[in-house]
Amino acid sequence: MITSAPAIIGGASLGVGVAVAITGFSRSRADLGDLLHRNDASRLENLEPRAARAADSLLDTFGARLLAQVGEGFVRLPRQELDLLGRSPAQHVGQKIGYAIIGLMFPPLAIAVLSLVGVSLPFTVPALAGLVMGVLLWLLPDINVKEEAEKARKEFRYAIASYLELVCLERAADAGPSEALRKAADIGDGWVFGRVRDALTRAELAGIPPWDGLKQLSEELGVPELGAPADIMALAGEQGAAVYSTLAAQAKSLRGVLLTDAQAEANAVSEKMIVPVSALVILMSIFVAFPAIMRIMAS
Predict the structure, then answer these.
(1) Would you kindly state where each structural domain of the chain is located, as residue ranges?
(2) pTM, two decimal places
(3) How many CA atoms does the CB half-sphere of 290 hold within 13 Å?
(4) How confident is the model at residue 10 (pLDDT cuts 50, 70, 90)?
């Protein structure tokens, strides 16, 4: 009976290939959660049909095919972060596939290069290393997306603080709640104001109040700073409440939070510089004092 590692790994690879081939030729079953997500008319991204995004590369095509076969629930996509960054699930999965292929191929290629100089290793070493690197690099795009989304949320908060100030000015000029939200969004530029204008337009097409569109946008992108002014404007639109002072206080509070976060980030960066600066001072002191110390010891 063959029990060698190459035979075991080869048999496992053949079995996985046959399973993938059978799955590819069989009729795929749509993910129930994905279908309910798409057919939910109350969600903001379903209020207006959008043109299908064409695949930019071969990896995007592979990502779309994988999602069509297994669904988004199996891959566990960071959907909120992708929506914030404006990336499609197929593009993200394609990137994960590309990184995983690199991780699988790098150890065997490295071993092949080492074999040219006379270094030989067992077959199990590159096989296991390839699997480990493939899994790690498969998870790497998720980590990168979360870091980029955190930076995007910070930029979103700064833009929302400016948006609140603009809404306050429009309300001070006797603009109605809906008109104030629309005019303030039209004044600003950048991708944040573009997302706000898009949310207001789709809410108008769906026949729902604009503050409900902003509320849904804040929940879907994970930016609660946009949900608070939406609730305030809902009071003005539904009950006719005077909300100028409340909006101004909200904008001032948000700017205070942003300033506190910026100061905390600056302090953290300053603390990280203590060790290298201290090491540089110590090295300079040794460099200056070493000749004098050596002369004293020699005399």
Answers:
(1) 152-272
(2) 0.65
(3) 6
(4) low
